[in-house]
Amino acid sequence: MELQQLVDRIAAEVTPGGAVADYIPALARIDPHAFGLAVATLDGEVFGAGDYRTPFSVQSISKAFMLALALSRNDDVWSRVGREPSGSPFNSLVQLETEQGIPRNPFINAGALVVTDHLGFGAADRLLDFLRQESGNASLDVDPEVAKSELDHSDRNRALAHFMASYGNIRNPVDVVLHEYVRQCSIAMSCADLALSTLFLARHGVRNDGTRLLGVSGAKRVNAVMLTCGTYDAAGQFAYRVGLPGKSGVGGGIIAVVPGKCAICVWSPALDARGNSVAGVDALDQFTTSTGWSVF
Fold first, then answer.
1. CA within 20 to 30 Å of 292's CA: 36, 96, 161, 182, which one?
2. 277 is known as an active-site residue
3. Hey, CA dihedral for 23, 25, 28, 34, is it positive or negative?
4. Annotated catalytic residue: which of 7, 20, 60, 225?
5. Active site residue: 62, 149, 177, 181, which one?
6. What is the pLDDT of residue 91?
7. CB 242 within 8 A of CB 285
8. What pTM value is reported for the model?
9. 60 annotated active-site
10. Backbone dihedral region for residue 271 (phi beyond 0: left; psi -120 to 50: alpha; all else: beta)
């Protein structure tokens, strides 16, 4: 089956379920029945269906790109954050005390705050520049309404940052780190934009202009952490059903990587209890089952 026929079939068959994220008021107003799916092949061709050109808030999907940017500079970030699944909710404080301020992985909120701190002031703008270049969409930007809404409801993230600062694992002022973190999570992108931006991981670290962001080993490591930690505390279930490195966000998006073949983004805002898009996981399950494309 051709890719366009496949994405059209999946878009026609999936049924959104769950509930939109309501702890960020700007996200609570999103249509829970929206659905988009885009597949970008290595040459940059995009096959899409549904609302695949509609921008949405990337939220925690940004964490995968931030980790890649941090690793493109050096591996020092691994001295400050682990690489193990947490088994706890993405905004949990519980493990930080027993593990002396070192987050389990870079994709829970505490870990992402450390990565943002590691990149320092201007991190969100560097991410925006990268995403604009990789997607070919120069108009990508932060959604100011989402950013304000998220910053106004950031008490838990502020607590995480202050707690880690007490262990010396946040080095910049907490307000600066939160500002950068909220801005990166509030970038608005479509499925097509995100699929194209994720292709460097399918190309083993090579960007769309042919230059390298990461070496082959670095890209492998980002993909590995996505597979084991990319869908909050449901990573095992995601690996079981989908079998690809993936990173989800509470805006309803999920990116996934088929190394050497393509990158995928699916968006459906209604989430399960663990913060992952119900229809998004189902769509990716159908995709890998139909194509046989999996890392297993």
1. 36
2. no
3. negative
4. 60
5. 181
6. 75
7. yes
8. 0.96
9. yes
10. beta
